[in-house]
């Protein structure tokens, strides 16, 4: 229930900024690590994914993508997620999540969500997602602006690890 409420609040707070940004920008959103999000003292690991989901929703809204998705009957589906923890986020801390499209190809788009608290990088969540229209995969280039000149090497290792699992 907390995730649904956080998504609703994110949606309402993002509405004034709808369509004011490009998808090749890094967008920031802040969250408060409440006692409901923490274990004994630190943010629970599943909450990083909830915050990343909200940050992705905020990103899609503020870049004006939600309207395009709805008009064209598109949805987005996460294929996999990867978290790298570096420092704990303490209860009651303000967490700034910096979101950007790291790269995209003809099928997939990779989002990066960096979690910062008290000026330090605490975690990075990578999300591999695709746009769907029914069963058809829609090329991300039809919706997103250029994400960089070359594919980051870190994505090659991640994709190789995913291939080993199948």
UniProtKB/TrEMBL annotation:
It comes from the Bacteria. Transmembrane segments: none annotated. Coiled coil: none annotated. Pfam families: 4HBT_2. InterPro entries: HotDog_dom_sf (IPR029069), THEM6_lcsJ_thioesterase (IPR051490). Gene3D superfamilies: Hotdog Thioesterase (3.10.129.10). PANTHER family: PROTEIN THEM6, PTHR12475. This is Thioesterase.
